[in-house]
Design goal:
alpha/beta, Rossmann fold, single chain, 6-stranded parallel sheet
């Protein structure tokens, strides 16, 4: 059985790698010969996928931000489309990454009509642009959607898409996370040290907008709480020099760690300041209070608001799960240093606010399904043609 899997960016590489492992494990136990070809990143390659292109570092959020990646993405896609036409897979698995994956899906529909398309983790455009052409295209290219949110499943069922709700794969990842004490011991952090985790980016261009602001806020927080210590995992090694140069321009106590230590950093933290994305849900599942920032190029935001009529109730996954604000979000001009410091101090020092956050996290967890998501997804994929 030959499967082609397409995803992009750091979070997609993580989700893809978890699925690749589950697929190979189940295929081996069931005596199914399996080959997985992919567009993804290093984690997927380590899990056993044969990469036809590395997409982990060419993802973007925003219109202006995506411009530098258009030509590299197009060239990579052209090469891979030609390969697929000459070597058709048995199944095409698309994970998030709507723009490029929509193009792949449309290409496959036209040129490989016999190849089923399974979409796993629908792009969040269903939340902020529910009646867009993108949603129509999604419905046209998807034979089966394996949905991670109940609301996502309901939405696409109403659009005529065949859907199965499988739950959120991060449940599987977080089930293996260390305890607070284990994480602190592994990172050599005193049990009584107050620790704030910083997660500025999984995409390179996000550093420009999030990291300096986080550093300014961290410096002010350190002035108010001198014994604070900050931890910052570097999601991709090529970011390290940029992060080091920025961090060194500010005065606060911080330790930079390798990206593979991110889970330990989350588990060890008392509080986190994070960009909007998968990391918000990881922190919520580990019961870490957090503040979410979302900043893009000002021109991107102007186009989104004034031309595309961009409107979204929330940006971060924890809030999208329950459709109410259980973690505070500061979007664009709201994300000032003073607001970040104010919210952070409250979430660090106010026991009632912290407890309310933990209670809300408990409610959110009940809406994410049960552990074993990747195995359920692998079963659906391996036996799709038997149905």
């Amino acid at each position: 059985m030959r499967i082609f899997m397409s995803t992009g960016e750091v979070s997609g590489d993580l989700q893809g790698s978890m699925l690749v492992k589950a697929l190979y494990q189940q295929a081996e136990s069931q005596g199914i010969p399996l080959e997985i070809l992919a567009l993804g990143g290093d984690l997927m390659a380590q899990a056993g996928a044969k990469l036809l292109g590395n997409t982990a570092a060419i993802g973007s959020i925003g219109i202006v931000e995506s411009l530098p990646f258009i030509i590299p993405t197009w060239l990579m896609q052209r090469r891979v489309k030609q390969y697929l036409r000459e070597n058709p897979p048995d199944l095409l698995i698309l994970i998030d990454y709507m723009g490029p994956n929509s193009a792949f899906g449309q290409y496959a529909r036209k040129n490989l009509p016999e190849v089923p398309i399974i979409y796993y983790i629908a792009p969040q455009s269903w939340v902020w642009s529910p009646n867009s052409k993108t949603i129509q295209q999604f419905a046209q290219i998807t034979d089966l959607l394996l949905a991670i949110f109940p609301e996502e499943a309901r939405f696409f069922e109403e659009k005529g898409v065949t859907v199965k709700w499988v739950g959120h794969p991060l449940l599987d990842r977080m089930a293996k996370a260390p305890s607070r004490d284990q994480a602190r011991q592994g990172l050599n952090i005193d049990p009584n040290q107050t620790v704030v985790a910083l997660f500025p980016a999984s995409r390179y261009q996000e550093l420009k907008y999030h990291l300096p602001l986080m550093c300014k806020a961290a410096q002010k927080l350190q002035e108010k709480i001198p014994d604070l210590h900050f931890l910052l995992p570097v999601s991709l090694s090529e970011y390290r020099s940029t992060i080091e140069a920025t961090v060194n321009a500010y005065q606060f106590s911080v330790t930079l760690l390798e990206g593979h230590k991110a889970l330990d950093v989350m588990a060890a933290a008392d509080f986190a300041i994070a960009k909007s994305g998968t990391v918000n849900l990881e922190l919520a599942l580990l019961k870490i209070p957090q503040l979410v920032l979302c900043l893009v190029n000002p021109l991107t935001m102007w186009i989104a608001r004034n031309i595309l009529k961009f409107s979204i109730p929330f940006m971060s996954p924890p809030n999208l799960v329950v459709m109410e604000e259980i973690v505070p979000e500061l979007l664009q001009e709201e994300a000032t240093t003073d607001r970040i410091v104010q919210e952070s101090l409250d979430l660090l020092l106010n026991p009632e606010r912290r407890q309310k956050t933990l209670d809300d996290y408990e409610q959110m967890c009940t809406m994410l399904g049960e552990v074993g998501v990747c195995d359920r997804v692998a079963t659906e994929i391996l036996h799709y043609k038997d149905q």
